[in-house]
Amino acid sequence: MSISTSSVQDTIVALATSPGANGAIAVIRLSGPQAITITNAVFRGKDLTKQDSHTLHFGTIRDGEQIIDEVLISLFVAPHSYTKEDVVEISTHNSMYIIERLLGLLIKKGARAARAGEFTLRAFLNGGLDLAQAEAVADLIASENKASHEVAMNQMRGGISNKLQDMREQLINFVSLLELELDFGEEDVEFADRSQFETLVRDLKTHVGKLIQSFAYGNAIKQGVPVAIIGKPNAGKSTLLNTLLDEERAIVSDIAGTTRDTIEEAINLDGITFRFIDTAGLRDTEDTIEAIGVNKAKEKVKQAKVLLYLYDDRDSTAEEVVTQIKGLYYPGLVVILVRNKIDLEGGYHPNAMDEQIKEALFSDYTNSIVAISAKDGESVEGLKKVLLDKIRDMAVEDQQIITNTRHVEALQLSLDALNEVEQGLGMLLPGDLLAHHVREALRHISSITGDIDVDRDILGTIFGKFCIGK
């Protein structure tokens, strides 16, 4: 998206509702200094230029004397609108013919077709939203579950921005004192209390660290939590997937190696989307196709956030389970061991194998063994609860949640700069060098909300991901 001064001074128009959607009404939106006069030129009803903001007006849209449609006009007079400009929304009948006629007519009268995300871009450029809030608009539109909706709504309403603004103000205050010292350098005056600054830097590092930590949870609920179901052939992986989905999605057979490719399905558990991946059984095989499936299973584990490792203690040893978990594990992977087929044992009974697995894995790899019968829905409910608890444990209590990769990268750079400040304080660096590192931290934090000059190419990338009309 190309952004220039002139491009935010003209009047833009776009269809604001989904094109081709089944529904009676479509909404066409205009924003800009001529939005009301352009609409008024084709509207037959009240004189829109003389009406108050937040009013509705019924009439017809005409091309000359030809009536195109009966419409309802919603007026939002600047600055009382989403974009902080004059905004008009035209509710018309949802006919592609009518929509195209109206858009063509409004463009002929002086409007310009809006680019993707341009309405929200104007809201940002006109001070209606900061950059983090603007990005949350796109997340809100894309939210597919309760958890991602709540996080996006909180960010759009300024949750992250308020926390970052507080950090900015503290850094700005201190860097101002440091730079004031430079103006009185010859008089050896110290305006900035170094001990207070050390405490401030430690507190800021803690806050930034928690925000970075929250990204694991935020990204998981935004994208859906990928869960790889892994185990030996006939461990019950496909049966578990079918029970989770409450449908016969995967083929279940007593023949080892039935599942040769991955099967992926998503379900919503208490507002969080989980993307379950059923994989081929892990074993050495000379069957070329099955071997490909085993390799794909291992690749899926590398992409997963959670690993459900199914095993049957009558068909596996503690050594096998431990060896496979250690071979599949990577830092950050949540491992849940699932001892399956307890129905064949008359219920769950702790045994020596459990203790051997716990001794080998519980310190560094996992702390969860869940006993189930994969074909019993009531039994699997306990596994669902453990899954939810594990994901919620990623969230930091009373902490804002980061879901955007750009934000977490900026926070990591600000944390690096704060580390430099802390080291500089310990080395008794002079104020000008400390101020340099503080400004670096400030610059990275401010880039999240757009409180500094943001590269126009970055804005184009951000808003270019929006749908047309938003």
Characterization of this structure:
There is one protein chain. This protein is α/β, with parallel strands linked by helices and 470 residues long. It folds into three domains: 6-129, Gyrase A, domain 2; 141-219 and 404-450, Four Helix Bundle (Hemerythrin (Met), subunit A) (Up-down Bundle), CATH 1.20.120.430; 224-392, 3-Layer(aba) Sandwich (Rossmann fold). It has helices spanning 35-42, 96-108, 118-125, 131-142, 146-156, 159-183, 194-223, 237-245, 288-303, 318-328, 352-361, 377-392, 405-426, 431-449, 456-463; strands spanning 12-15, 25-31, 43-44, 55-63, 66-76, 87-93, 112-113, 225-231, 263-269, 272-278, 306-311, 334-339, 369-371. It has a seven-stranded mixed sheet. A hairpin with a 2-residue loop joins strand 4 and strand 5. Helix 7 packs antiparallel against helix 13. The longest helix is centred in the middle third of the chain and has 30 residues, at 194-223. The chain is flat and about 85 Å long.
CATH domain class of the largest domain: Alpha Beta
Number of domains: 3
- Give the name of the CATH superfamily of the largest domain: P-loop containing nucleotide triphosphate hydrolases
What number is the mean pLDDT? 81
Secondary-structure class: alpha/beta
Can you count the beta strands? 13
Rg from alpha-carbon coordinates: 29 Å
Q: List the secondary-structure elements in sequence, H or E.
A: EEHEEEEHEHHHHHEHEEHEHEHEHHHH
Low-confidence stretches: 250-260
Percent strand equals: 15-25%
Number of helices: 15
Q: Judging from the principal axes of the Cα atoms, what is the shape? A: flat
The percentage helix is: 40-55%
> Going across the major beta sheet, what is the strand order?
3-4-5-6-2-1-7
